[in-house]
From TrEMBL:
Organism: Photobacterium jeanii
Leader sequence residues: none
Residues in CHAD domain copies: 24-313
Transmembrane spans: none
Name by which UniProt lists this protein: CHAD domain-containing protein
InterPro entries given in the database record: CHAD_dom, CHAD_dom_sf
Length: 320
């Protein structure tokens, strides 16, 4: 019997900018070009998502769209209002359609860790739990695949993409505005950095999860701003900024993951009989994730003062 093996797709490579930001260049045409490139990069992952070759295809698709959406929200005062609102809302809908599958992929990637964490008597219940996750994942993937291949999905892009090709600069000039790269970079980065520092100062060991989650969002905004405006900045300084942010963001990501896991596990357990193998195994996982959540919060509290001290003293040295 001949068995043919299907070749897997390679992940697309992100291309560098064709035209870099220049301090006194007109801002909007360069922004539009960057956003178009990011969307093109995101869409190159669609075939890999549909083939289900690697969960990284969906992850990178989401990262690229999130970057576009975050930049449009950060730069809202400088963009035409109608297009900015329409594009960000459409991208939000795209993200929401992919949330469920990405969450399930994350759980399945943690499967080996969960088996290592739990004692052997709970492995039977844990195996059944992951069987259930696999079944839900199959249904979620089937639904997402159908949507990505649909005429409706393509029609949404056909409506969105022309908005990025419109002459945004002409609309700005009608309002007697001619935004340039450097003044906008200073304004946006100063605002983003101030938000992170102020958020850090508001956090202590009594802070609600929602406050810490907002810090995670603020850090993402600052990171996206730094990455976008990097050509205008001192390279060594921006690299150090991003390094400090990455350490904190990793800890904030762990904190958010454990919060999402607790919610998911509690919902799952509520539908199981208390004497079942699944119930007992998931109860052990809930206890474990609660401990991880508290430990993650302690790590964040230990890290934020260092990040705040760095940003407060080094922020003004960003620009050339």
């Amino acid at each position: 019997m001949n068995v043919t093996r299907r070749d897997t797709l390679n992940l697309p490579k992100r291309k560098s900018r064709k035209v870099k930001l220049v301090a006194d260049a007109t801002f909007l045409p360069l922004l539009q070009q960057y956003l178009q490139n990011e969307i093109s990069y995101a869409r190159q992952h669609e075939k890999g998502i549909i083939r289900d070759d690697d969960t990284e295809f969906l992850h990178q698709y989401r990262v690229a769209l999130r970057r576009v959406r975050a930049l449009l929200k950060l730069l809202k005062p400088f963009c035409p209002n109608k297009e900015q609102q329409a594009i960000t809302e459409q991208l939000k809908q795209f993200m929401q359609r992919t949330n469920a599958l990405r969450d399930l992929d994350v759980y399945l990637m943690k499967m080996d860790d969960y088996f290592d964490y739990l004692d052997h008597p709970h492995h039977q219940g844990l195996a059944r739990f992951f069987d259930d996750i696999q079944d839900v994942r199959k249904a979620s993937f089937k639904d997402l695949k159908r949507w990505l291949k649909s005429e409706d999905y393509q029609a949404q892009w056909d409506e969105l993409l022309p908005m990025l090709n419109q002459p945004w600069q002409q609309k700005a000039e009608k309002n007697k505005e001619k935004p340039l790269c450097l003044p906008i970079a200073k304004q946006v980065l100063n605002k983003s950095q101030t938000q992170v520092c102020q958020r850090i100062l508001s956090i202590d060991n009594k802070s609600e999860d929602a406050v810490i989650h907002q810090l995670r969002i603020d850090c993402k905004k600052l990171r996206y701003s730094l990455e976008y405006f990097a050509p205008l900045l001192h390279q060594a300084t921006v690299k150090t900024h991003l390094k400090h942010l990455k350490v904190l963001q990793d800890k904030l990501g762990d904190f958010n993951d454990s919060a999402v896991q607790q919610s998911f596990l509690n919902t799952y357990r509520n539908n199981k009989k208390p004497n079942s193998h699944r119930y007992r195994a998931v109860s052990e996982l809930i206890t474990l994730t609660e401990q991880q959540h508290l430990a993650s919060k302690a790590d964040i509290l230990g890290q934020i003062s260092q990040v705040n001290a760095y940003l407060s003293t080094k922020g003004e040295r960003l620009f050339r």
